């Protein structure tokens, strides 16, 4: 009986994440970044109300599009990498840009879609900024 209850809870939890199709994000309140992709996070040094809005949008976009694989609150459960531990510098940004632009495919199976086909760079950099804000301090 306990096994059945655990299975039901697990199934309900998995379904709670919803559709796996990337969800669009309203970024109209964020600073516009233009068409050309930035090599480093242009929102990293934002302060005040702009930063608050970037973090709000980033958290929402992450929860709607990334959490099902990369973990709730940014904490990976082992399915996909913990994005909070990417260094907040050029090297971390370079890896992040590569992955959101190219996705991840192994043996012909799509593990992560090309997120730039679904989200603009404002949403994707807002996600990166939010991840940096929740990163463990001991890294």
Which structural traits does this protein have?
single chain; 139 residues; Cytochrome Bc1 Complex, Chain D, domain 2; disordered N terminus; metal-binding
Major beta sheet summary = 2 strands, antiparallel
The oligomerization state is single chain
Q: What order do the helices and strands follow? A: HHHHEEH
Strand order of the largest sheet: 1-2
Strand content: 5-15%
CATH architecture assignment name: Orthogonal Bundle
Number of domains: 1
First-residue to last-residue Cα separation: 43 Å
Describe the fold and architecture.
- Helices cover 45% and strands 5% of the residues.
- The protein is mainly alpha-helical and 139 residues long.
- Strands 1-2 form a two-stranded antiparallel ribbon.
- The radius of gyration is 16 Å and the shape is globular.
- The model is unreliable at 1-19 (pLDDT under 50).
- Keywords: Electron transport, Heme, Iron, Metal-binding, Signal, Transport.
- InterPro entries: c550_proteobact (IPR030991), Cyt_c-like_dom (IPR009056), Cyt_c-like_dom_sf (IPR036909), Cytochrome_c550/c551-like (IPR051811).
- Residues 53-135 form the Cytochrome c domain.
